[in-house]
Design goal:
The chain is of the alpha+beta class. The protein has one domain. It has 2 helices and 4 strands, in the order ββββαα. Strands 1-2-3-4 form a 4-stranded antiparallel beta sheet. The relative contact order is 0.14. The mean pLDDT is 86.
């Protein structure tokens, strides 16, 4: 496993009205040495298992966010709202 900087600022990806401990996804943006900000690390973890961290880079993270905004992942959430109201 790669070294995770201890001084990261974790940002919780939760709706504004969310309460309680989650579980939620948290994101932290690292710094890169040099000029290529696209290679800067991006760290992701779940609040219920913060020791498990997934790392990508800023270029891939930005492409993912643009894909979400464009609806490219909507098929993954079809029926999720129905499951929440059925429980």
């Amino acid at each position: 496993m790669s070294d995770i900087p201890p001084d990261l600022t974790w940002i919780r990806a939760a709706p504004p009205e969310a309460t309680g401990p989650g579980p939620w996804i948290e994101i932290a943006f690292g710094e890169v040495d040099g000029d290529d900000d696209g290679e800067a690390p991006v760290y992701l973890r779940e609040t219920s298992a913060p020791e498990n961290v997934v790392t990508t880079n800023r270029r891939k993270w930005d492409a993912f966010v643009l894909g979400v905004q464009a609806g490219e992942f909507d098929h993954f959430v079809e029926g999720v709202a129905d499951m929440e109201t059925d429980g």
